[in-house]
Amino acid sequence: MHTHTFSLPAAVHSIVITTIFLLATPAASAQQASTNDVQELRSLVLQLQQRVEKLETQLAAKSATPGQPVAPSSQPTPEPPASAATSAVASSAPVAQTDHEAIAALRDTTVNVALDGYYAYNFNHPVGRVNLLRAYDVLSNNFSLSQASVVMEHAPDLTAGRRFGARVDLMFGQATDSLAGNPANEPRPQIYRNIFQAYGTYIAPVGKGLNIDFGKWSSSLGIEGTYNKDQLNYSRSYWFNFLPYYHMGVRANYKFNDQFAVNYWIVNGTNQAEATNGFKDEMFGFVATPRKSVTWTFSYYLGQENPDRIVTNTPGPVPVQPGLTFVEISPAPDGRLHIFDSYVNWNATSKLALALEGDYVIQRTWRNSAPGESSAPRRNDGGAAYIHYQLTPKLGLAGRTEYMMDHGGAFSNINQALKEATATFDYQLSDGFLMRYEWRRDFSNTPTFFTDTQGILTRQQSTATVGLMWWWGQKQGSW
Q1: Is 180 among the domain residues?
Q2: pTM
Q3: What order do you get walking across the sheet with 325-328 strand by strand?
Q4: How many Å apart are CA 179 and CA 145, to the nearest integer?
Q5: Domain that includes residue 56, residue range
């Protein structure tokens, strides 16, 4: 056995010894640098010597015969004196700590992106390629971008001692114009159009925690939601299209236990980031979970959606925001809006899910208007039923049927009974990429739907649609 030893070249030792000797000579030091510079140079040389000795020890350990201990260095390691160099290293610690805290603050923030596009074919070949009474799949014979969304969320977490949180949803595409593009509801829709949701959250220390949100959020009236990847079908129901999309205001949720929670909102109105009158709408509701597989949601919404002004872009008596003026409506209608919305979700088995929704909506122009008058209340009632069966982890089937009696044409501008049936086939190629194939047929008891001849209407329309959805990010579950 041969034991290999390691030593630095003589030239390196000579340089180190010579440098130490120069540092030890006051006259030479005085000629070359100031006292502070000498102290700093001495510190650097001592640190260099320490590192050289450590390197010698490590290399000797690697070269030693297995099982043979390595002799420690015979020379003691001197402690480096405090100097400008060590102070500089110490001063960098707060900066590193600040960076670490900033990264830790963003650790629970999720950034998520979704793309949703489709191609739909309408067998009526409608003039203008319009799929009537649809919320998102509004065009036929057209490659369409329905949604391009970015969702950023920093949710509160009581276990981590964080009571505050926030969420922002930015949305672009056809669905955005459907959601926030109606000037009848928004005096300045272009300001809010791409901000679908933006709200802050605070969990107040009341009982088990009172959840309070302020800002603009997606309405929970109706069983269907905004993001297509979380729905059973590609197209949306009549009730999703008719009920509010979003609200601006304050909402509170208190969960008594795992079986029962209550909700309360006070908001500007339905689909109103900026109010059209001085009335503040309210919602009272609850969510009951009698079993883990069953969830029942009930909501009662009280509003006043009649505007008390006309918004114009011409000079008027009341100047307001840049480019807009208001003309007073006097007397302003004061009729109330009442929405009763209830739906139940039941996960019957690990593969089979069922859902049922029922709605009753009544809207009055004047509070004292009665049936038979010119300003008689408009009423909508009906509901929808859903079924979904997961054949395999990648393949799923879904169906929906619904009915809406549109008294007074509050939804369709025609007094009619609307029905539809939808069948959907899902194929999930991978996590975050879903292909959805759908066939849907709409019916009415009155000619309503467009045909290939302008001015000629028919009582039904059938569509076939292929939807493609991509999404990625850290947020788990439904968005």
Answers
A1: yes
A2: 0.77
A3: 309-312, 325-328, 318-319
A4: 14
A5: 10-99
